[in-house]
Structure formats: C-alpha cells, structure tokens
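Troubleshooting entry. The earlier prediction with xanthosine-5'-monophosphate gave an output that would not parse, so I re-checked the input for stray whitespace and re-submitted. Clean input:
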Amino acid sequence: MQSLVKEKIVIIDFGSQVTKLIARRIRELGVFSEVITPLDLAKVKDYKSVKGIILSGGPSTVTSKKFESVPKEIFEKKIPILGICYGLQLIAKIFGGKIKPSKKRREFGRAYLFKKKQSQLTNNFLNSKKSVWMSHEDAVVKLPKNFNVIASTKDSKLTIIENKRNKIYGVQFHPEVTHTEDGKQIFKNFLFLICKIKKKWNIKSQKKRLIEEVKNTVKKNKVICALSGGVDSSVVALLISKAIKKNLICIMVDTGLMRKNEFKESYEIFKKKYKLNVKLIDSSKIFLKKLKNVSDPEKKRKIIGKLFIKVFEKESKKYKNIKFLAQGTLYPDIIESKSATGSKTSKIKSHHNVGGLPKKMKLKLIEPLKEFFKDEVRILGKSLGLIENISYKHPFPGPGLAIRIIGNITFNRIKVLQEADHIFVNELKKNNLYNKIWQAYAALLPIKTVGVMGDSRTYENICLLRAVISEDGMSADYFNFPKYFLDNISNKIINNVKGINRVVYDITSKPPSTIELE
Ligand code: XMP
C-alpha cells in the first residue's frame, strides 16, 4: 500500500481493541501510519520508508509458552521502536526482562504516573503527575538489560522504560485513548523528536493522487456504484466522477427505510448539483412486503441485505461494459478484516453495508477510501465540494429504520418514526448540537403505554431517542443533553406526531449496550 508515501510509521497489531486509535493519532499529527499484523511484518522487504515502529497492545501474554512476537532483527535496523502495553512487555521479554502475571500489580482504568528520569519520549508530558489509562494484568517486574525507568505508578514500577542508545521505548499505559491526559504528546515526541519524521500527510494533497489512481486503474472502462447519500458512498461517487466523468453510473436503491425525505433530496443533489449519472430505483414496496411480520433483528438484516443486492444486480445488468464496482470501504474495515485473520482482535460487530459486494457480478473492486478514517473522508469530501449536510451527516446503518423499529415493521410505523426522527434531528441542528454528536436517532419500541391528552386517554407508542458521542462507533457514551433540550424535544414530538404519547432517552453507553437497538 502507499507506494507514493515516502515516510511512514508502521504499527504492528497484536490484537488490541484500540490499535486503530494509534493509527489515527499519528495521522492526526500529519504523519502516514499503516497497521500491519505480525505475519505481514515478515513480508516487509524494504524498510527504507519505515521511520518508526509501534508494537500495539493485545490479549496475548508473554508469560505463556507460546506468544505473539516479532523477529528480533527489527530491533537491529536502527529504526526507533515504541511498545504499548503488550508491546512494552514483549520488548522487556525479548531483552531479558521479567514479566509476571500479577493480581497485585494489575491495573485497569486510571493510574497516576510519577517521573523517575528525563526522556525525549516524555518531553512536555511528565511535567507533573499525569493521569493515564491502564488495562493490563501482566507487569514487567525486572528491567531488561540496558534499559532505564522513566516513570512509575503506585502499583507498577516499570511503567515507562527506554533504551536511549538504541531508541527503544515502552509504555505500559495507552497513550492512544482519550482517557490518558495529553497522550498525544507521547506520539508527538516519538514521531518528531525520536523518529524525526516529517509532517507530510494531508488529506487535500491525497485528493489529487486518488483521482490520478482512479484514472489509471479504470482507463476507458465503466464503473458502477451503489450510492446511499451517506458520507462514504457520496465521497466515493464524487471522487470517481472527477476522474472518469460520465463513465461512472450511480444507482440509488430506495428501500423506503431511510430518514424522512432524505433519499429523494440526495438524489436531486447528485443529479442536479453534481450532475452525476445517477438512477433512482424505488423498491420500497418490495422491501416492505418481504419484511412483513418479521421481528427478528438478524432476519431483518439478512432479508434487506439479500434484497438490496438482488435489486442492484438486476439494475446494473441494464448497463453494458461495466468492469468495476466502487465501494466506500474505509481503513477501519481493512484493519478489522486483517485482524480477523492476522491477530486476535475479538470482533465486536459483524455488520456491513447493505451496499456490499454482489459477488456474482464478477466485477473488479475499486475502494478509493480504503486508506482513510471517517474524519479524513469528511475532509476529503469537503475538498471535493461535497455539501456539509452530507459530509458531516451522522452514520446511518445499512438496514436503515428497519433496525430502529423494534418488532414488526409496517408502513404506518415507518411514517410515525420518520416524523419523530425528523423533528429530533432538526432540533439538534437548530440547537447547534448535531455536530457535537457522533450519531443520533429516534426509534420505536414494540410496546404501547397509556397517556392522557386533553381529557382523553391515549394508548400509543413509545419513542426512544438515542444520541451518542464516539470516536469510531466501537465504543460510545450517551450524550449529556441540557434539560431544556429534553423538555422541548419531548413536547415537540408528542404534540406533532400522532401515534406517540411517550418519549424516553437512552442513557446507556457502549459497552454494555450497542449504538443501534437491534
Ligand atoms: P452498533 O449498534 O454495533 O453500531 O453499536 C456501531 C455502528 O455501526 C452502525 N451499524 C451498521 N452499519 N450496516 C451498516 O452499514 C449495518 O448493518 C449496521 N449495524 C450497525 C451503527 O449505526 C453504528 O454507527
């Protein structure tokens, strides 16, 4: 990947749930980073562009007979190395330190660092007692040869260690998570003081490269793309159309399970504003028919996924000479699928876009966003002229409102939910809250409750509101709305949406809940 990137940081993924965040932090600092598995590392032949290596955390333990490792030679290449959590323990093990599984020394959550020695790694970081985030059971109990202790915590003496001469560093805590105070400073120091890598990664300059790459790959052929009007597929469509103009055919399959008015509005924008070659297929009736009396979430997903592909395939057969299928795969999807075969990241979610790949079509895939994180895609979208309404749109699940209507899906329930959801999203925008939230939506619960409106008894639906903050959807916390907003939204929905007489706000984080209800 990335032949045009002259300098990069390589992250070796030992399966931590937060490895992605390491890559992201480094990108945020303007440096290209790539996540590879320990297996991939063996295949790396040319280290010229590798200016630093980071060993991630992971569920393995160096105290067992068999543990995941890296060839010792990588320490002889004079490339600076930083081990995080498991990465630190691995470094200690390789260089003759001692690691113990220890109930006494295990640390989960917050811990405080105390400075022991000056180091380039902790420059501007350890000026005072620092709060860091820990998640480990094993601990290094004997320092490896030629290493020094830079910082300790109350329970763990060897929390930051270094071999200054060989530029090998290890930290027991996770500087990549936001719970570590100023964690980014550790990466800043590692990148710019230790690896001496230059800030060269910027999304806008990548735009030109991506357009050229699409041109060179596609040549005079045709590309087909399932356009949903979400951020990823919209950016893919705009990018490819800049490269090959009318040879891109976009198909929008309206499942009838989208937010109120959203699909038709997106269609108009792509057709009229961006002048794309786009066709809208209204399949809402067949989707509704196939979902009749289906309340099981997995069944809903399967029916929608299959039907989507069927409609898309049927439509695309009407076009001749199509060679490529464009998909909005993002970098986190690539990391996750690698982890599934390479290291031990346990999969939290297994969903995918319903715009997924129809295998039977035997088209070649182009995935121009596969090196990018969501926030990078948004910036790319902006630089392609994508309107803010789309580039900063909240993520929306492929199965759409079907997994936000708990229980049976009917035409009437879709309409009721669309109205409530529309009011919720509009109020978020009006109150300048929309962009502070990762994802927000209304859902319909499968129970009715009694209410009183005017002088009459009502027996109507419960509408659940969900709004979460998150970095990548893998974990999330509920958004803390000011009370006035909750008061107002509850009134607005009940007064305007016939069929709802109670509004509740979901105050669970992920984990233990998920972002969607189904
Ligand atoms: P959960 O509910 O697992 O969702 O916490 C995490 C993120 O994934 C989105 N999601 C989906 N996206 N197809 C998609 O394209 C799906 O089947 C699907 N299910 C969940 C969800 O909206 C959230 O952003």
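This one parsed fine. The chain has three domains: 8-194, 203-391, 404-505.
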